[in-house]
Amino acid sequence: MRKKIIAGNWKMNMTPSKAVALVNELKPLVANDDVDVVFCVPAIDIIPVIEAAKGSNIQVGAENMYFEEKGAYTGEIAPDMLTEVGVKYVIIGHSERREYFAETDETVNKKVLKAFEHGLTPIICCGESLTQREQGITLDWIRMQIKIAFLNVTAEQAAQAVIAYEPIWAIGTGKVATTEQAQEVCGAIRACIAEIYDEATAAAIRIQYGGSVSASSAPELFAQPDIDGGLVGGASLKVDFGKIVNYNK
Ligand code: 13P
């Protein structure tokens, strides 16, 4: 049985002092032993958030990471900078990184490999645009993103990975995918993993849905057979996140 994983993606929000205040507010609200709870926060908030989250069930993730060990890469953050302070997860290839910062499936693959090398669990994002959905190429597109992201990733590593299916048209728009749409794609992603690896790996990997998840849409989405939780943007910055984490209570 896969444990659900519900992660907040704070994006470019929250100064360090605001971050600590939010963690203190959410700490008692996100207690749910049935779920892995992850706060993916801006780099500068990581250390204060880890401090503030001590003694709670909150695990901390980064929103991005570079695929080299160290060196002349101004503005980037290295994997061992994250692990040294206790980061466990890292979001890789969010559609906003792809759109505004020129990330590609190839750089996503390099980052995924580097994350595993350092014992970080990647939350690998994929998702189609509205045009692609209207053209009927959603599943082809997602399968391609997944196949490239997992190049040279071993089955053992893949079983530990998290994939976030985030239709781009549903991000920050309030337009959540229907449960059927989300389940269809998450099911196809699991089938693709079975094709690349085997049934056991496909059964182990966790697949999230992301895109306008709210306290009201979470219970039905997370009840789908291939949806193992969510990657939550806007609602992770509010007390609503506690309700999303406790979707099953
Ligand atoms: P929203 O929940 O704000 O739509 O953002 C989703 C997202 O991009 C999470 O990574």
Characteristic key phrases:
binds 1,3-dihydroxyacetonephosphate; TIM Barrel; single chain; globular; alpha/beta; 8-stranded parallel barrel; 249 residues
Brief write-up:
This protein is α/β, with parallel strands linked by helices and 249 residues long. The protein has twelve helices and eight strands. Strands 1-2-3-4-5-6-7-8 form an eight-stranded parallel β-barrel, surrounded by four helices.
Order of strands, widest sheet: 1-2-3-4-5-6-7-8
Order of helices and strands: EHEHEHEHHEHHHEHHEHEH
The molecules bound to the chains, other than polymers, are: 1,3-dihydroxyacetonephosphate
Low-confidence stretches: none
The global form is: globular
What's the name of the CATH homologous superfamily?
Answer: Aldolase class I
Distance between the termini: 18 Å
Radius of gyration: 17 Å
Overall CATH class: Alpha Beta
What CATH architecture would you give? Answer: Alpha-Beta Barrel
CATH topology term: TIM Barrel
Oligomer: single chain
Helix % is: 40-55%
Count of separate structural domains: 1
Structural class: alpha/beta
Q: Enumerate how many helices there are, as a single number.
A: 12
The whole-number mean of residue pLDDT values reads: 97
Main sheet, how many strands, which sense, barrel? 8 strands, parallel, barrel
